[in-house]
Amino acid sequence: MGNPEILKKKVLHRLNNLTKPVGSLGYLEEIALKMALIQGKELPDLPKNKKVYVFAGDHGVVARGVSAYPKDVTYQMVFNFLNGGAAVNVFARHVGAEVFVVDSGVDYEFEDSPYLIKAKVGFGTKDFSAQPAMSIEEASKCIDYGRKIARKAIDEGADLLAIGDMGIGNTTTATAIAVAFGYDIDEILDIGTPIDDATLQNKKQVILKAMEVNRPDKADALDVLAKVGGYCIGEMAGFILEAADSHVPVVVDGFPTTSALLIAYNMDNRVLDYVFAGHKSSVKGHGVILNSLGLRPILDLGMRLGEGTGAVLAMSIIEAAIKMIREMATFDSAGVSKGSEQI
């Protein structure tokens, strides 16, 4: 792919010589540069095959009353995704992406479906406030399954990927993962679905109990996943790792998908070179984690739905950034006089 520093200079030179003041298209210019570096070419190609994978799993900690919704909603929403009726389906149709649903660990047995990927590690994790969420072997299996799903997508031509999540209790699990890695629980803790303050405080105590019972080792991402993670989150982490290894960009969505990124990042920090933050969720802890990773969200729309909705919408902005660097005239080609800031 050549020398990345030389390529970076070439891309910046082109961006700075497009018919606009230097830097005037803001973050779009950074997105174009990142896509150029990922693809290893001065003019990045527009994606031809966009896919979003919604990883679904149940979380045993739901039994502790941390969510406003019963866990049955997880499997019911899987049917909604497969029938094309969820928000992520609508937005995916808008941007021309295919939606696949991954059964990572839903407490339900699904029939075969063309857009359902069966990668079930178990029928929901255990209640991590009393014991580890899963075994270390199951955690490894999650990573392997996620890698295989990404590998198959890439082998079939996917060149821009997005991940989403579905699972009642997933923000409790995501918060526990962040706390296990050393984040302050009071900076991270927030509602996922609407809950009252008493339920939120219960959520906090359940997470603190999980730390006390399991003592996850923040220096060992697989240990964190096994003790306080989720099957869906482990598979998303594996998916991110494989996409990065294959030099294919992956857009993460909100808080639970970013907790999966934390797992992947703590296994291999190079993944950040291939990851875009699709949006900033209104869930408080999401912005804290993105800031700590140095990832700027593409969108900030006050969303907190999950499913991959923000990641999918961001695909259109990534495409706009690519079109900008590919299609805008340079000062020379347009015969426009340069300002003194142009190089």
Secondary structure elements and their pairing?
Layout: H1 4-16, H2 27-39, E1 50-57, H3 72-82, H4 87-95, E2 97-105, E3 116-118, H5 136-155, E4 160-166, H6 170-180, H7 185-188, H8 197-214, H9 221-228, H10 231-245, E5 250-252, H11 255-267, E6 275-279, H12 284-293, E7 297-299, H13 309-327, H14 331-334
Parallel strand pairs: 1-2, 1-4, 2-3, 4-5, 5-6, 6-7
Helix pairs in contact: 1-2, 2-13, 4-13, 5-9, 5-10, 6-8, 6-11, 9-11, 10-11, 11-12
Textual characterization of the structure:
With 343 residues, the chain is of the alpha/beta class. The protein has 2 domains: 4-45 and 324-334, 5,6-Dimethylbenzimidazole Phosphoribosyltransferase, Chain: A, domain 1 (Orthogonal Bundle); 50-319, Nicotinate-nucleotide-dimethylbenzimidazole phosphoribosyltransferase (CobT), large domain (Rossmann fold). 49% of the residues lie in helices and 11% in strands. It is built from 14 helices and 7 strands. Strands 3-2-1-4-5-6-7 form a 7-stranded parallel sheet, sandwiched between helices. β6 (275-279), α12 (284-293) and β7 form a beta-alpha-beta unit. α2 (27-39) crosses α13 (309-327), α6 runs parallel beside α11 and α9 (221-228) packs antiparallel against α11. The protein is globular, with a radius of gyration of 20 Å. It starts with a helix and ends in a 9-residue tail after the last helix.
